Amino acid sequence: MIGSKLKIARSAAGLSLRALSDAMGGVVSAQAIGKYERNEDLPGSKALIALARALDVSEEYLLNEDDLTLEGVDFRKKPGNSSKEEATLEARTIQLLERYLLVEDLLKLKSVDWDAPRWPHPVTDLRDAEDAARSVREEWGLGNDPIPQLSELLEERGVKVVSLDLDDVDGLAAKVRRKDKEAARVIVIKKSTWSERKRFNLAHELGHMVMTPAEVVDGEKAAHRFAGAFLAPADALRAEVGVKRTSISVGELTALKRRFGMSIQALTYRCMDLGIINRAAFKRMFDLYAERGWRAPPYEEPETLDPSVEEPKRFERLCYRALTENVIGEARAAELLGLTIRELDARLDQMAA
């Protein structure tokens, strides 16, 4: 039935029933669209075409009965976000995942399954998050080296990473329930934010996936500790800065930022967590960051990492592959990538140059 797909597409577009009816030029009423969504009625061919055009999706998409659902959704957001904003983000995520999984199916690729480490890692103390990060690195054969592109690593391990234009939400993480298939994992990141923040958010959500905090442990603090340990392993960081310091310069932290792909402030927290600096030194440094305006929007530190560094690329590569192998045509490739045919042609020309 069309109801589920129609509601997802409308939510993703951020349209009310009345706004969608208006966008269709009044072909059908808001009440009729509500009946379609509740599967109390089916649209005729004229209404189906108008719905697809107004929602910028294909008629095939609306008629496809393969449903995805998100479970255990965890938003990275500011306080005060509305339920409507959250519903819109969930719907947009489902739409993109459906396209992603469709391309894998068209190419007859086995969808990369979530390569779960030995989990759940029990966390009864924040220091257990340190052990969990070390364990995941060991199981994935990462050693103590910095991770150049975390989004690519997670994609290789079966986590779908999706990048969207977001406002007050930094992203979400969820389990994706698929009909007759194993559940997948997805992390959504904010396209426009600096890559050091994307990297920390990705590592933070990975922490949530692999740890089971006890009731007495703050899950968010545990995920933060995991993220710091995963991006800058204790031995690697101590080898750079030493075991005990009375202070660390901004210049030194900036160099460490280039090495580990973490913000200066996250690295300062990491040094305090490891006991490299004490709380008094930590406070002095954060007072300095506040004076320089780094603690307030837009939180701009020296040498911020370009947002493109951590942009996920696997889905885009699969679309180009499907087009090159004549599995799909230009129109379908453009639709999957959310581009016009002219924009797609320009990208292909740029890649060929």
Features:
353 residues, four-stranded mixed β-sheet, 17 helices, elongated
CATH topological fold name of the domain at 121-239: Arc Repressor Mutant, subunit A
Overall shape? elongated
Give me the Rg, rounded. 23 Å
What's the tally of helices?
17
- CATH architecture name of the domain at 121-239: Orthogonal Bundle
Order of helices and strands: HHHHHEHEHHEEEHEHHHHHHHH
Helix content bin: 40-55%
Query: What is the residue-mean pLDDT, rounded to a whole number?
Result: 90
Q: How are the strands ordered across the major sheet?
A: 1-4-5-3
Pick out the low-confidence regions. Answer: none
Largest sheet: 4 strands, mixed
CATH class of the domain at 121-239: Mainly Alpha
End-to-end span in angstroms?
A: 45 Å
Number of strands: 6
What class would the helix/strand composition place it in? alpha/beta
Beta-strand percentage? 5-15%
Description:
The mean pLDDT is 90. Among the domains are: 1-65, 434 Repressor (Amino-terminal Domain); 121-239, Arc Repressor Mutant, subunit A, CATH 1.10.10; 313-352. The protein contains 17 helices and six strands. It is elongated, with a radius of gyration of 23 Å. The strands form two sheets. The protein has a four-stranded mixed sheet with strand order 1-4-5-3, sandwiched between helices. The protein is of the alpha/beta class and 353 residues long. Helix content is 54%, strand content 11%. It starts with a helix and ends with a helix. α6 runs parallel beside α15.
Overview in brief:
By secondary structure, the chain is an alpha/beta fold. The chain has helices at 3-13, 17-23, 30-37, 45-55, 59-63, 83-106, 126-139, 150-156, 195-210, 219-231, 234-241, 250-260, 264-273, 279-291, 314-324, 330-337, 341-352; strands at residues 68-77, 121-123, 159-164, 169-178, 184-190, 211-213.
